[in-house]
């Protein structure tokens, strides 16, 4: 018989290989594989499309003189700092971030996405209300479904001829190449400058996409 010199355990009768290892009462949970966050896999920096969209939104608001264009509203907003002229100050104006660029025909319609006649500067309150009213539809005299109050506003602003042109354009399949997009972006920045706004920061921000469209 062979015993353990320390505890006297009979090693021959009960070899250590037969002794079960003690189990933890609360086993340690296994680490779950972390999923990649969207922020870590989405493209970094501006793309040509996002730059064009941002510049177009600024142009729409500049054309509206940074006011809500919906009748009987007229709320005034501060100019976005990226194009704010030197010496500009308007203490009574509201924060520029709640002045929205609204599209009557959907933004997903490439033919009218960057048509200035299809976009309007609305305060967040008017924009939210008009978008909700898009759920209430009717068939107008031209024979297609329209969006009630928003449609009345747009028809009155543009007239039936221009309205119909935009409607046809919105339903057309349009593909715009990168070179055309860069030309559009340059043109929009020039229009903003012609309206009296500072565009040096905008040109610097869009320098890379204007150069190579990346």
SSE blueprint:
Blueprint: H1 38-41, H2 48-63, E1 99-103, E2 119-123, H3 124-133, E3 138-139, E4 145-146, H4 148-158, H5 160-170, H6 178-194, H7 200-205, H8 207-212
Antiparallel strand pairs: 1-2, 3-4
Helix pairs in contact: 2-6, 4-5
Features:
single chain, 214 residues, mainly alpha, two-stranded antiparallel sheet, two-stranded antiparallel ribbon, 4 strands, 7% strand, elongated
Structural features, described:
The protein is mainly alpha-helical and 214 residues long. 38% of the residues lie in helices and 7% in strands. The protein has one domain. A two-stranded antiparallel ribbon has the order 1-2. The radius of gyration is 31 Å and the shape is elongated. The model is unreliable at 38-43 and 142-146 (pLDDT under 50).
Uncertain segments: 38-43, 142-146
The tally of strands reads: 4
**Total domain count:** 1
The main sheet orders its strands as 1-2
Q: Helix segment count? A: 8
Instruction: Profile the largest sheet.
Output: 2 strands, antiparallel
Mean pLDDT: 80
> Which structural category fits the helices and strands?
mainly alpha
* SSE run: HHEEHEEHHHHH
């Amino acid at each position: 018989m062979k015993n353990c010199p320390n505890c006297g355990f009979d090693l021959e009768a009960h070899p250590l290989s037969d002794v079960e290892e003690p189990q933890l009462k609360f086993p340690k949970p296994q680490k779950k594989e972390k999923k990649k966050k969207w922020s870590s896999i989405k493209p970094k920096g501006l793309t040509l499309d996002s730059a064009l969209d941002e510049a177009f939104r600024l142009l729409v608001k500049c054309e509206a003189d940074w006011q809500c264009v919906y009748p009987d509203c007229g709320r005034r907003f501060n100019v976005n700092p990226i194009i704010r002229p030197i010496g500009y100050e308007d203490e009574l104006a509201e924060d520029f971030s709640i002045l929205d660029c609204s599209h009557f025909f959907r933004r997903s319609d490439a033919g009218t996405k960057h048509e200035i006649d299809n976009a309007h500067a609305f305060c967040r309150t008017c924009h939210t209300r008009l978008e909700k009213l898009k759920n209430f539809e009717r068939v107008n005299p031209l024979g297609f479904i329209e969006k009630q109050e928003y449609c009345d506003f747009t028809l009155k602003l543009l007239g039936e001829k221009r309205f119909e042109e935009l409607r046809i354009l919105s339903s057309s399949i349009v593909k715009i190449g990168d070179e055309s997009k860069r030309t559009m972006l340059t043109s929009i920045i020039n229009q903003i400058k012609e309206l009296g706004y500072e565009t040096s920061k905008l040109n610097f921000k869009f320098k890379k996409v204007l150069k190579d469209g990346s």
